[in-house]
Write a structure and sequence with these properties.
The chain is elongated and about 75 Å long. It is α+β, with helices and mostly antiparallel strands. It has a domain at 55-127: Orthogonal Bundle (Arc Repressor Mutant, subunit A). Strand 1 (12-15) and strand 2 form a beta hairpin. It is 27% helix and 22% strand.
């Protein structure tokens, strides 16, 4: 019996005449994990990577708008009308930006590098399709 040894990418292991090549997953191409988002519009339930996410009413309204228009840009005035229907023209950019920031924080662990909600400068926001 021999002492344990750490395997390295490309090491060959022979067992009963069969040769196996060890491939270290950390040595191969690393891809960025794209979160899997699911929204059940009927119930309002939201899941990220099969984990439920709790959202405020305003966050859910924003996500629902973006969900319905996946891949399309939603202008800030569309967002204001969908999220704050009780206010007419009184919504400022900073309010929308703050809501988007809070929603990103709920949906993605690294919201500063958001992959789901994409800012389209000068136009608005879109949900990655």
């Amino acid at each position: 019996m021999t002492a344990p040894d750490r395997l390295h990418d490309g090491d060959v292991i022979e067992i009963a005449g069969a040769a196996f090549i060890f491939r270290d997953p950390n040595a191969t191409l690393q891809t960025t994990h794209f979160p899997k988002l699911v929204l059940d519009e009927a119930t309002g339930d939201v899941w990220i990577d099969r984990c439920p996410v709790q959202l405020s009413a305003k966050q859910r309204a924003l996500l629902t708008l973006l969900w319905r228009r996946r891949g399309q840009v939603c202008a800030k005035d569309e967002i204001a009308a969908a999220v704050w229907p009780e206010c007419r023209g009184e919504i400022y950019d900073y309010q929308i930006e703050s809501l988007v920031k809070r929603l990103r924080a709920r949906l993605e662990p690294h919201a500063e590098q958001s992959m789901l909600i994409i800012n389209v400068p000068g136009l608005g926001y879109r949900l990655a399709a």
